[in-house]
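User: Structure with adenosine-5'-triphosphate, tokens only please.
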Amino acid sequence: MNAIIEFEDVHKQFKEKKALTDVNFSINKGEIFGLVGPTGVGKTTSIKLLTDQLKPSEGTIRVFGESVTGNHTQLLSKMGILSDRSVLYERLSLYDNLRFLASLYDRPVSTIEDILEHVGLASSRKTTYKHLSKGMKQRANLAAALIHAPEILILDEPTASLDPSAKANVHAFLRQLNEQGSTIFLTSHDMNEIESLCHRVAFMIDGTIYLCGEPAQIRSTYAAPTVTVTFADGNVETFNNSYTGMTSLRNAIESRKVQSIHSDEPSLTDIFLDVTGRKFA
Ligand SMILES: Nc1ncnc2c1ncn2[C@@H]1O[C@H](COP(=O)(O)OP(=O)(O)OP(=O)(O)O)[C@@H](O)[C@H]1O
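Assistant:
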């Protein structure tokens, strides 16, 4: 695997507050990687460290094998960043904002139309940034993050203010960018988003990585060793995934009409709540 983002033994201390403790993970080229966790566990701090807005107290963060600390000018040109700070001017129209950014990166203006179309803001191109709604501002900043066709996209809660339809459009766009070669690192509170979008996911709890892996692999690790069968007469029975359980299941299937069979696999949200005992914010 070709790791292009690496967190190695990263700690971050803010005066008395320990925000990150011994954080280790890596993201491979071409992956969509999700960092999830409740509010205040260290997701934004991780993004700020990765984008050199903060310095780690200990440890190293590398992008393309190079430490980001103090080396961000060159590395940032390869990253598109959506963070909690807007990069757009309040008094400029959306189009003029993006045209300004495109000129900084020497990108053709045709890129702007294409991106505006994909984030669903083509009809708002003349609107002054400050007059956009909260969800539109979020999509405008996503558009700004994409203007220089970055190899890596770093997105802090990219869909937090979006309605379900805008969310689905942004998801489709992110999948498309990923298929075209972008590596995407995103944070979210939304397990469904992570489950449907990400190749791998890390659960962050109180500043540490609790679990990391592919959603299907995590689900199967925590799956209950049972199979639930609904029979045509309405009865529901659970069978153990053991030799005797499976023999009973086979006998039941042969002798009774079955409506549905499903393995009792928990969702990522179930697993998260189970392993942490904490609720999502
Ligand atoms: N500049 C700072 N000074 C002091 N403490 C900070 C600072 N920035 C963050 N923290 C603290 O570090 C912890 C992690 O904050 P962070 O913003 O990374 O959480 P988060 O997981 O992104 O939360 P949310 O999902 O609400 O955005 C919190 O307790 C926060 O109060």
